[in-house]
Protein: Protein LEG1 homolog
Organism: Dipodomys ordii
Amino acid sequence: MAFIPCWAWVLVGYLSTSVVGAPNLSSFYPPLWEESPGQFSDYKVENGKYIIDPWVYTSRMGMYKILLSQTATYFAKFAPENEQNVLWGLPLQLGWQFRSGRSADPTRKTNCGYESEDHLCISADSWWTDINYFLCAIPFLSAVDSGIMGISPDQVTLLPPPKDQQRFCYNVSGCRSSHPEMMKQWNAFYQYLKSPSSNFDEILRYLWIAHTSSLEGSLGNFEDKFLYYSEPEANFEKSWCVVVNYLVASLYPPTLIRTHIFEKGLPPRVLLKTDIAPFIKGFTPLQNVVVLSLNGLRKLDESTDSESLTGWETLMKTKTARKLVLLLMEIFIEIAT
Ligand SMILES: *[C@@H]1O[C@H](CO)[C@@H](O)[C@H](O)[C@H]1NC(C)=O
Ligand SMILES: *[C@@H]1O[C@H](CO)[C@@H](O)[C@H](O)[C@H]1NC(C)=O
């Protein structure tokens, strides 16, 4: 046992110097971050309301950009340049979905997300971006509701997609009545964030509770979308839903640099019928192993009736174990890329 921490620490030293060696954080930002709106006045105004179309990639990303900048002050005590803001995980995930073609129309009945003029279109048929809606619109509107965005709750409205309009909510009062639990948990996160004595672990706890409520309130409503995907991609989506629970239990800190590194393991394009991990052509060994192990973890979870998750949760109660897992994940990524 003593042997493992020994070589692990050498790698930690190596990892931290490689991060210090890359001081310009803008290289870690998601695609088109600079081009996305960064303040409310960048959006259209009608009847005194800001009108935001979350079905356009840059507009949706702009919601995150405003959210990140409005919460920066609460993370300033942890690191400069907002690097430790735990909300970075959300825009980086959307960025990965966009980059990998997962925000496009999986049915291919429209050009949404494909042709150059529709490149920025986000499809309401995309399982990924439907779920992301509840990890974007809800945290965003809840932040407005919590008073940290500098505008009043009735000053902003989101536009509906061309279909399935009844599955989403579009303003603070609408989301409060259709998704009260999500709005409540995100609100609790912001209230804690605002307290001067906030500590990082506790922030993560509130974040993951809120994140989980967004997933619990939305995953069940979009299972019909699995049908639009190849079997490997649909399996990957289902595994993703399971694996998130393990990530939550480990209180994974979705900060900027860490999440950027973590994303190296995610599949760079939508999986095809012929893709069999770990032999997917064009994927790095890490990406192949990630697809394989995510599916493996889901099988383990299903075959043990989630006893494996319960065990994991117990293990993750101690800070030392959480740190070790994080460390091993980073070493693994470093070795496999
Ligand atoms: C970081 O890089 C971007 C372009 O990639 C540039 O606009 C910005 O000024 C750089 N920031 C610093 C602090 O060097
Ligand atoms: C909020 O959206 C709902 C529909 O989701 C609508 O009925 C309501 O009028 C909207 N409220 C405001 C203040 O815009």
In short: Residues 57-75 form the longest helix (19 residues). The longest strand covers residues 49-52. Residues 154, 157, 169-171, 173-174 surround 2-acetamido-2-deoxy-beta-D-glucopyranose (ligand 2) (CB under 6 Å). DSSP finds 13 helices and three strands in the chain.
